[in-house]
Amino acid sequence: MPPSVRIDNDSDHPTREDRPVPTGRLGCNGCGNPVVQTPGKKLRIYCSEACRSKVRRLLAAAERPADPTPTAGRGGTSEAKTVARFSSKGKSPSTPGQRGCEERTTPKRTSSADGGGRDGRYERRDRHQTVALGGAFCKCGTRLLGGEAKVMAGAAASFSGVQTCHSVHLCPVCMSKVLAVRASNVQLAADGLAAAGYVLALGTNTLRHFPRQAYGSLRRGQRGGLVAVLHDAWKGAYGSAGRPWRRLRDSYGIVGYERAFEDTWGSQSGFHLHWHVLWVLKVDPALTGDQRRELLDGFRRSIAATWRDAVLGAGGYEVSMKCDRPDCSCGGEGHGTDVRFIGADEEGDAARYLYKDGDKGSTIGLELTGAAFKDGRAWDRMSPLQLGDLAAEELLQLGEPGPLTEKYRERERGVFNVHKHYRSQSLNRLIKSLEIEQDVRTEAEIASEEGEGLRAVAVIPARTWYRHIAYHPGRRLALLKATEALGETGVRTLIESWGLVWGRDVLPAPAEDESDPTEEAPAPVADDAARRQDDERQRAKLDTVNVEREAFLAARRVANAARKDEIDAAMARVRATA
User: Fold this and answer.
1) Three-state SS for 471?
2) pLDDT truncated to tens, each residue of the chain (578 aa)?
3) Per DSSP, what are the bridge partners of residue 341?
């Protein structure tokens, strides 16, 4: 990590803290033995790779949650089975993968659906940008689109003229904007479809995963890993051109689906990639009671069997299809897939308006789209944003990339070309035919939206932006807070506390045009004589061009005819001498 930056209010330039240059031998951070330093090279803090790995393991063990307290069981003392895992056939424990409904020894961490509020998202973006390698994300909120940035005031302050990355996988700021719109679309669609009599079901499709498995990539020529297995399995199971999909569609009246991608990471289980799906079915209203229940149960079992076969065909491990844990919520059907019907047998408009996903207490829209903001289960199930937080902290403490940083960058590369949300074309056509309102803006348009009713209060030239604001953590957020609190006065007071000059380094916004746009402008006085002269000159010029063009074409025709005669004479001479 570069040395910390100290800001001198008496100077316009940041100065770095003076650090003593190490000479001779320093002690190793792992074993304490002297480390030979090479003049002019990077400071070495370990004597060997073994000591480096030792320190990394100690850091990981220090942050790992404590073991559960042993409890007395039947036949003697034993540890409570808090991590029940299932093998391919559901008969014996296996390494981390699809887990059962074990007792939770540590409370599940929760976070707000907006990722910690505006301030938290800005701070998270600054931290994650120190770890990320992607150019678009690292420039989000930093690079200018032109020669200046404008500070906009309104219900919520914002910057105008600053680049956005519109990444729904990496950027906490752009992610919150896009997912809020997508969640609203899904909820509106679910409400309209349920009102029209369609049956809705929330499903989850998972993979068996191990720490040794790589995240993978969908890049051309580099396709592989868990993310490729997940996509290939979906295509094999529910692809529109496949026989399994046609069989499911015709047997159970599947109209379409909306799919969302989610991934987490755990130190003991590795990357966990899965789909969240909203299935839409058209069920015959004449089916009631046991017949309807039998049809829906058959749909759930068919979805699971089709997914199992497709995962094996895509090169993945066999998913869990059986569960021998007593009183498990899966009912003994395993944890490879999960399908929950919503409002299928309920009555009343209230049941059709707001749907709950089991015990999670969230609407359909938030469950499908808000996965990136959901915190994981302690150390063994971290959300992407949590992984970024720990990776940034690790990089700050160690001064070099560690295991968490490597995992974050592996995921950063793997999510390239992964669509966060996808809606089948058949479901799109149905939603349009039902005239359900949807926001059709692209992710780039949503992320770059600045809001309505905003007015500029300050203009920051590019030189001031890059030298004094963009690369100083916290200053962009401080400008927004000052704007929301005091407007132009707050911006001026804040930038002067940084040693900048109002009117030179930061400019006041230009006054808006106060003229009435509805007032009709006076009609210009037309000079008919001058206009007629111009028209005559243009016509004469055009006639001259036409005459010259005709002369050129005539000369070219004569030359072509003469050339043809020359070719015929030359060919006659060749034939005569042959």
Assistant:
1) coil
2) 444 333 344 444 444 344 344 444 467 877 778 888 887 777 778 888 778 777 777 777 666 554 444 333 333 333 333 333 322 333 333 333 444 444 444 444 444 444 568 899 999 999 999 999 998 999 999 999 999 999 999 888 999 999 999 999 999 999 999 999 998 999 999 999 999 999 999 999 999 999 999 999 999 999 999 999 999 999 999 987 778 889 999 999 999 999 999 999 998 889 999 999 999 999 888 888 888 889 888 999 999 999 999 999 999 999 888 777 777 766 667 778 888 888 644 433 333 333 333 333 345 555 565 555 555 444 678 899 999 999 999 999 999 999 999 999 999 999 999 999 999 999 999 999 999 999 999 999 998 887 778 899 999 999 999 999 999 989 999 999 999 999 999 999 999 999 999 999 999 998 765 445 455 544 444 456 777 777 788 888 778 878 888 888 888 888 888 888 888 888 888 888 87
3) 201
**Rounded Cα distance, 85 and 108, in Å:** 19
Report the sign of the C-alpha dihedral through residues 479, 481, 487, 493, in that order. negative
Residue in this structure with the two tokens 């989610």, named with its chain if needed:
262
DSSP per-residue codes, 45-113: --SSHHHHHHHHHHHHHHHSPPPPPPEEETTEEE------B--TTSSS--SSSSB--PPPSSPPP---T
The Cα 415–Cα 170 span in angstroms is 9
Residue 270 β-bridge partners: 266
For residue 211, report the phi and psi dihedrals to the nearest 5 degrees. Answer: -60, -30
User: Positive or negative CA dihedral for 108, 114, 119, 123?
Assistant: positive
3-state DSSP assignment of residue 304: helix
Pairing of strands 254-266, 270-281: antiparallel
Given the structure tokens 């090279």, which residue do they identify?
41
- The three state secondary structure string of 293-359 is HHHHHHHHHHHHHHHHHHHHHCCCCCCCCCCCCCCCCCCCCCCCEEEEEECCCCCCHHHHHCCCCCC
For the chain, give the longest Cα–Cα distance.
Answer: 118
Cβ neighbors of 375 (< 8 A, separation 6 or more) are: 108, 109, 110, 111, 382, 383, 386
What pTM was estimated for this model as a whole?
0.67
3 state DSSP class of 224: strand
With a CB cutoff of 8 Å and minimum separation 6, the contacts of 210 are: 95, 96, 97, 269, 270
Residues 216 and 414 sit within 8 Å (Cβ to Cβ): yes
SS3 readout for 498-524? CCCCECCCEEECCCCCCCCCCCCCCCC
Give dist(CA 466, CA 86) in Å, integer. 54
Give 364's Cβ-side CA count (13 Å radius): 31
- Tokens 């359909």, residue located: 364
Query: 508 phi and psi, to 5 degrees?
Result: -70, 150
Cα–Cα distance for residue pair 408/392, rounded to 1 Å: 9
3-state helix, strand, coil in the chain (%, to 5): 40, 15, 45
